[in-house]
Design a protein that fits this description.
- With about 280 residues, the chain is mainly α.
- It has one domain (about 1-275).
- It has 10 helices and 2 strands.
- The chain has helices at about 1-20, 25-35, 40-65, 70-90, 95-115, 155-175, 180-190, 195-220, 225-245, 250-275, and strands spanning about 140-145, 150.
- A two-stranded antiparallel ribbon has the order 1-2.
- Helix 3 runs parallel beside helix 9.
């Protein structure tokens, strides 16, 4: 019973932060389950995939209603991430836990560095550089924290599709939804506002995770005793996080993103080295 309550509480916190930053909660849950609760990494990754789907469902409806989520863009980018997720899940079946931990940590530290460089950027420059918007991906939303409508354009779609395939591989390999990489691709390559990047990433996470979750289930890596409190906590936390995102500034979201990535990355690298 104590295990259920502890995992439920941690999952709620991960759901709030995950929905704010577009990382699905798995980025925070995997280290907690392995380092604190002493769960085997493959079981933690399986539960993480369940949490990713729950976060995407819980926050997606609210983001779509507020027009923070670019649904059309998410569907286009998911064509690349789903294929990558299947490849990553196949690789994970033959990789050791220590290797996965080190890879996980390095991924987080690099993500933190990239986000740190843009920590004080609230919005990218407005104005199209891509010519005709054939897929009608450019959009706008009302930002309560700025009290104005933000108009944005989508850039470098082809390069972003390649990056999203790589993010899909990481999703299947590490069970984190690879939301950090999706946010970074949309933020740095596509020049989207951070709130659009995180919300669109949240929508994409559920589809990407579902593409690899079946393989983890077939291998017996999704344990119901672990996955049940994770799904419940994440879903509740994601709903709260979706409301907070509307009132928080983009720069604050970036700074929270950097701190959590740094702490978690160091922890996972240390665990992998120590075995």
């Amino acid at each position: 019973m104590l295990f259920f309550v502890e995992v439920l509480a941690a999952s709620f916190a991960a759901g709030v932060l995950g929905s704010l930053m577009g990382i699905g909660g798995g980025l925070l849950l995997v280290p907690f389950l392995t380092l604190v609760m002493k769960v085997k990494l493959h079981y933690a990754i399986g539960a993480s995939l369940v949490s990713v789907i729950a976060t995407s469902s819980g926050a997606g409806v609210a983001y779509l209603r507020e027009k923070l989520l670019n649904l059309r863009l998410g569907l286009v980018l998911n064509t690349a991430t789903c294929g990558g997720a299947v490849v990553g899940a196949l690789i994970a079946g033959i990789a050791s836990e220590n290797v996965l931990s080190v890879i996980f940590g390095l991924v987080l530290l690099h993500s933190a560095y990239l986000m740190f460089r843009t920590r004080n950027v609230e919005l990218p420059p407005e104005g199209s550089q891509e010519g005709t918007d054939l897929l009608r991906l450019h959009s706008s939303y009302f930002d309560p924290s700025l009290n104005r409508t933000v108009t944005y354009d989508v850039h470098r779609l082809q390069a972003a599709l390649a990056g999203m395939f790589g993010a899909g591989v990481l999703s299947g390999l590490l069970g984190i939804g690879a939301g950090a990489f999706k946010v970074l691709v949309m933020d740095t390559l596509m020049k989207l506002p951070i709130k659009v990047s995180t919300t669109t990433s949240n929508f994409m996470l559920g589809v990407t995770a579902a593409a690899s979750a079946g393989m983890y289930f077939a291998r017996g890596d999704i344990h119901p005793v672990i996955a049940a409190p994770v799904a419940l906590g994440i879903l509740a936390g994601a709903t709260v996080g979706a409301r907070l995102l509307q009132i928080l500034s983009g720069t604050l979201i970036r700074k929270i993103f950097v701190v959590i990535l740094l702490i978690t990355g160091v922890q996972m690298i240390w665990k992998g080295i120590q075995g």
